[in-house]
Specification:
The chain has about 400 residues and is of the alpha/beta class. The chain has a domain at about 50-250: Spore Coat Polysaccharide Biosynthesis Protein SpsA, Chain A (Alpha-Beta Complex), CATH 3.90.550. Helix content is about 50%, strand content about 15%. The chain contains 13 helices and eight strands. It has helices at about 1-35, 65-70, 95-100, 115-125, 145-150, 175-195, 220-230, 250-270, 280, 285-295, 300-310, 315-340, 350-370; strands at about 50-55, 80-85, 105-110, 130-135, 140, 155-165, 205, 235-245. Strands 3-2-1-4-7-6-8-5 form an eight-stranded mixed beta sheet, sandwiched between helices. α6 (about 175-195) crosses α13 (about 350-370). The longest helix is centred in the first third of the chain and has 33 residues, at about 1-35.
Length: about 400
């Protein structure tokens, strides 16, 4: 009886993981090939007006470089306004923005309240047809804004996400870069078949009329971008709208960032739970369930598989292989943690398993935060030291 239960639990866990990591991506590919959703419409005769919003807290190091970057894009200068919403900055950033020599730049100097309330005020002050969101340390290529705005020629499109890359490629960031590469591929496929799951805060845009005030505790980029889906408009990926930024400063900083993002992510899904109804939102409901819930809660099946495989050791080589393989993988993750910061710890052999386990441990911490009603509304950037010094 015990072995029978272990068998069912093991294969239930394996099937869940296989669907999440293999079956669902294959389903996305099938949908994109058989039912592609192409963009329609002609380019605007008059370029869309753009409100470029940068919410920042103590970004004196980056802010002038960011403003230079935003004004250097290949887009009519007279159609762009840049709003820097300062969330209680006290490092001299406000003075830098106030003194910046361009009438296109506006400073909103606000008390420290957190990113979401600051974003709400910034969008209220915006006047553009399209609101573009970007982080202070994320730098666009000259043609990125043009590519980001091009899909809005299709009236069915309500939001567009850009493509984020790291400025540098250190070995310690191999796990995070692998995650971004996989996420980037999924977004391409999802967008071709209808809608990508959500945008990321480094660079995305929505039609201003689709913006809704962001509640406290949610992840701002997810919540804002899926308002597009809630309005039954398309949310698409623009892979040529490239933006780059720095890595987290360390594995510890990356873990803290993951906990903050996942805590807000779980609450965001709860606040957007109407999108899980397939009667109203069709295939996107399955995307949301698989990508934002099942994938983030995969530690459950992982733990179940790890516990049941040894109990089935005597049933054949498959269970023995599963036991040894899981033990080896998590041992490499532990070695990566113990050797973090050393040349050995930075190798992909150790950093990739460490990143994998770190994400799911962060998901457990985030879930506990959610159940306890704990949110992280204030944020402090977790990044590596910049290689470029910025001055006015």
């Amino acid at each position: 009886m015990r072995r029978t239960l272990s068998w069912w639990l093991f294969w239930g866990a394996v099937t869940t993981a296989a669907y999440t990591y293999v079956g669902f991506p294959m389903l996305l590919v099938l949908r994109a090939v058989l039912w592609p959703q192409r963009l329609r419409g002609l380019p605007q005769s008059t370029p869309l007006s753009v409100s470029f919003i940068i919410v920042a807290h103590n970004e004196a190091t980056y802010i002038c470089r960011k403003l230079d970057n935003a004004l250097a894009v290949n887009y009519p200068r007279e159609r762009i306004e840049i709003i820097v919403a300062s969330d209680g900055s006290d490092d001299g950033m406000n003075a830098l923005v106030a003194a910046y020599p361009s009438s296109a730049v506006r400073l909103l100097e606000l008390p420290r309240r957190g990113k979401n309330p600051t974003l709400n005020v910034a969008v209220t002050a915006a006047s553009g047809d399209i609101v573009v969101f970007s982080d202070a340390d994320s730098m666009l290529r000259p043609d990125s804004l043009t590519h980001l705005l091009a899909p809005f020629a299709d009236p069915a499109v309500g939001g567009v996400g850009g493509d984020y890359h790291y400025e540098t490629a250190s070995a310690s960031g191999a796990g995070e870069r692998s995650y971004w590469s996989f996420d980037r591929l999924l977004k391409r496929i999802e967008s071709r078949g209808g809608n990508m799951i959500s945008a990321t805060g480094q660079l995305y845009a929505i039609r201003r009329e689709l913006f809704q005030p962001i509640p406290a505790g949610v992840t701002d980029d997810f919540y804002t971008s899926v308002r597009v889906i809630a309005a039954h408009r398309r949310l698409v990926f623009a892979p040529q709208a490239l933006v780059s930024g720095p890595e987290a400063s360390s594995e510890g900083a990356e873990f803290r960032r993951k906990v903050r993002v996942l805590t807000g992510g779980f609450k965001s899904v709860w606040e957007s739970r109407q999108l899980l109804n397939p009667r109203h939102y069709g295939f996107y409901a399955l995307q949301l369930f698989t990508h934002k819930l099942l994938r983030r809660l995969m530690i459950g099946p992982i733990v179940v598989a790890a516990l049941t495989a040894p109990l089935l050791w005597g049933r054949g080589w498959l269970y023995r292989g599963a036991t040894v393989g899981q033990l080896a993988f998590h041992s490499l993750a532990l070695a990566g943690f113990l050797l973090r910061g050393t040349p050995a710890g930075r190798t992909k052999l150790l950093s990739l398993p460490l990143f994998f386990d770190m994400v799911y441990i962060a998901a457990v911490v985030a879930l506990v935060n959610l159940l306890r009603g704990k949110s992280q509304d204030m944020w402090v950037t977790q990044r590596a030291k910049p290689t470029v010094k910025v001055s006015l």
